[in-house]
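Write out this protein's structure.
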Amino acid sequence: MAEIASLPIEPPRRFHVDWLLPALFRPRRTFAKIVEQSGDVWLTPILVVMVAAVAHALVTGWLKQIAALSGPMDLPPDFQYWAPDRQNQFMQAQAAASGPVFLYVFPSILSALSVWVGWLIVVGLLHLVFTLLGARGTTRTAMNMVAWAGLPFAMRDFVRIGYMVATRQLVGHPGLSGFASADAGAVSLLLAEFLRLFDVYLIWHILLLVLGVRVAETLPAAKAWGGVLITILIVLLLQALPGFAMAQFSGLNIIRPFFF
């Protein structure tokens, strides 16, 4: 009896670098491959988005350091009347805030964490919303789909990095925040935080999510669009509220906490 040699089974790949550009520019065919996968294929896009976010944080810190070294220090009102020990404490705090830990290390860590936390939040909300709408997709499919649909945010960070390096200036009004009123009212602050999250890359992300849902689930177009928009609006609200609260009570500018 002849022995039949079994063919070796090729293990699934962990990295799919060859899918990066097709996922952005030929998404229908690429997302069809993504949703067909039985394993995890989310690592490649998450790493790309994380690297872009960390690079953006490093370039931002570099420009802030240049501004701190080249310009005069902003002193609080009546600083000259403060006690000497209080003045020394203020100067030490300003020096620490201009150091590499606060300019590079902490922002890089927060940027990396925001990518992972934001991805998991979007996955959880999207899976919950579409389960309520009658979809039967798995959490793994949602994880893969959301990760690859987040690639436009890496493009956004790389574009902003190019702008900042070329002009030596920070991005003044991200998204549509320039259309918000300049007054400090509560509604204006919330609207400004909300509008700063809207840009063409967010629209690109929404389109990829809708496409992925249509490929993965047998749902009507109205349910696909409705589920994605509900998820995104909830996420944007979660992002806008912390920045609104901090701006309302302390007047500080807050970096968006998550969502790629």
